[in-house]
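worker-03 picked up job from queue 'complexes'. Input manifest follows; two sequence lines, order preserved.
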Amino acid sequence: MTTSPAPAAPNLRALQPGELARALAGKGLWIDLGAATVRVRSDSAVFAAQLGTVYGELPLADQGVWADTHIDIRRATGLRRWVRPQVVLWCDGQQPFEPFPADSPLPLFEWGCNWQIAHRLNDLLLLHAGAVERDGLALLLPAMPGSGKSTLTAALSQRGWRLLSDEFGAFDPQAGVFRAMLKPIALKNQSIEVIRAFAPQARFGPEFPKTRKGRVAHLAATADAVRRRHEPARPGAIVLPKWEAGSATRWEPLAEHVAFPALAFNAFNYTVLGEAGFRAAVHLMRVCPAWQLVYSDLDDALATIAATWPAVVQRHAEALR
Amino acid sequence: MTAPYARVDGALVEPAGHLWVAYSPATGETALLNDESAAILEILEAGPASTAQVCALLSADSGMALAELTPVVEASWSKLLDAGLVRAGRRAEPAKIAG
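worker-03 finished. Artifact:
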């Protein structure tokens, strides 16, 4: 006797108007990011609409057995329901952030979600890095704000590299692999126009002109990245990006004593992990060749990475023999 | 003669390019070390040692003059103590370099 497979859940993008809002207002939505699951509930129809634009490729999951964090996005009560209305993020009965304007629940959710992940997922070493995959290997882009990390990660994700995360290089020290933490890429200010021009097919959420970090828009992960979000990636290479207006592309090998601090001292939970974090960072420093990339031209930057990548793949293939 | 110093149990040291990275289980912190500090920690792996003992071993190993080594080693103690990589140790038999 054969049985038909259970029908796949529809993607959020395919839902009827109001369906996502009803799920959020009920038991909530389980958002499976790959390495973590976030359960979110909300009474904000604005939030439902915004969420659907950037998580649209995810399947609808309105029940689940486990979530790493539970977040509520609620419309503010009292007078704030009417005068300059706001939304509030609740987590574990606490309100860790100031309220946001009611028309901007998505940035509040994204930042709150990142904050929760950074504080909770201590079975992983959470590098502050963009991470993309090709040939089964992760390319890490650790960097400080303003370095062009998100812009470069976004560009790579639109040109054949699978996005693992823009914010978290989520390394599983037990398995020795990176895991996806697949959230939309938060692009800021002129990076929004840069990526819109670079990848006209890219899906963006709404633009938020006046956040604390300036103008922000979220780039949705591609359908392929969402579908493959449970595929791990072995450590591949490290590239420290630095965007400099008008600069020619420079590509220089990075010594281990520069790569190590860029990984470890920039990580969200390195000190929490103690010895395990140290050993993981040393391992990554050992197995990943590293470069500094100074760039202003995205096409040229991507071509430079692509030109080096076959040697990275070969190095890792030889190490496996 | 200075009091001997001991390497903190469980301290880890790994080469990293031109420097060394060291993890202290006492503080939970990681420090970047130069060659001199890493060499001192390697000597202390054999047991607690004073400045004079460390300098004697380093001199024998590297050929550098004791007068040149002593201020370097003396200056290293406070940094290694702050980093949680060494502690004031028991007086002990002179340490020997293994191998």
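worker-03 released lock.
Strands of chain B lie at 5-7, 12-16, 19-23, 30-33, 86-88.
Chain B touches chain A at residues 10, 12, 14-19, 21, 23, 25, 28-30, 32 (CB under 8 Å).
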